[in-house]
Design brief:
Blueprint (H helix, E strand, L loop, with lengths): L6 H29 L18 H7 L1 H34 L2 H16 L2 H14 L6 H24 L4 H9 L4 H30 L2 H6 L6 H8 L7 H29 L1
Length: 265
């Protein structure tokens, strides 16, 4: 591509790419280095020496570990609720008439457009009126209200590529609608369902604006870190970031290797 560009344009492109990668990766590099700094505050300088003490301290921090367990549990529950709801919404929009599909689509997508603070507060107020105080249930309900919309959009994009002739042929051969859905539609949607589940879990795990209002006196990992920002963080937070970075890198590499092996298989 650069061979077709003028020298000036080629230089500008290289400078832009360099600035882009610096912007993307420099904060991560600083975070990783700070995780191994013996300084009591998460900083790159002054450098007090190399240490691994922040990783054991991270495990010893009961609040952070409790928040991590709560975030994982909440993410699993939200994923289990959001994917079926997203699937149902996608089927309603895709299989409905042109007049009703537009209306349902606008209604089901609207939670994405609302600020997370509004969703969190409105969920807490609603469930408090029926006698349920803020906690994991209200946080899960608030998160599901907009995460299900993301799942619907992903599944809907996959449904748009499905050939309706496949379902019609199965029905003509005597299959029941449930059999067609289970043996034809669901296998075709499997990649989208898997992607929607991953996105739903990550959206739930990192959500702050909605969760901090809906969870009441409870806390997740993200809300606990946000609460500690007022008093100062320790490098144990950087150690947690390094662990997440390694997990993400391993997952990405594993996914790339699996995709490369598919044609050979």
């Amino acid at each position: 591509m650069s061979d077709r560009l003028s020298p000036a344009a080629d230089l500008i492109l290289k400078v832009y790419l360099a600035l882009f990668f610096v912007y993307m990766f420099l904060p991560l590099i600083v975070m990783v280095i700070a995780a191994f700094n013996a300084f009591q505050y998460p900083a790159l300088s002054p450098w007090k020496g190399f240490t691994l003490e922040w990783f054991p301290r991270l495990v010893e921090d009961e609040r952070l570990m409790g928040g991590l367990a709560t975030s994982i549990l909440l993410g699993i529950c939200v994923t289990a609720a959001s994917v079926p709801l997203g699937l149902a919404g996608a089927l309603i929009v895709a299989r409905g008439t042109r007049r009703t599909s537009g209306l349902f689509y606008a209604m089901l997508v609207s939670p994405i457009l609302m600020p997370g603070v509004v969703l969190g507060i409105s969920t807490l107020v609603f469930w408090r009126e029926v006698g349920i105080s803020g906690g994991l249930f209200t946080a899960g309900a608030a998160q599901t209200s907009f995460i299900a919309s993301y799942c619907m959009l992903m599944i809907l994009a996959r449904l748009a590529r499905q050939d309706p002739v496949l379902e019609e042929a199965a029905l003509d051969l005597g299959a029941s609608p449930w059999f067609v859905f289970r043996r034809v539609t669901l296998p075709f949607l499997a990649p989208a369902l898997g992607s929607a589940a991953v996105i739903a879990f990550l959206q739930s795990f990192e959500n702050y604006n909605t969760t901090v209002f809906a969870i009441g006196s409870g806390y997740t990992l993200v809300t606990e870190i946000g609460a500690r920002l007022r008093f100062g963080l320790t490098p144990a937070i950087n150690a947690l970031g390094v662990i997440f970075l390694l997990v993400t890198a391993v997952a990405a590499i594993g996914f790339a290797i699996a995709n490369r092996r598919k044609p050979a298989a």
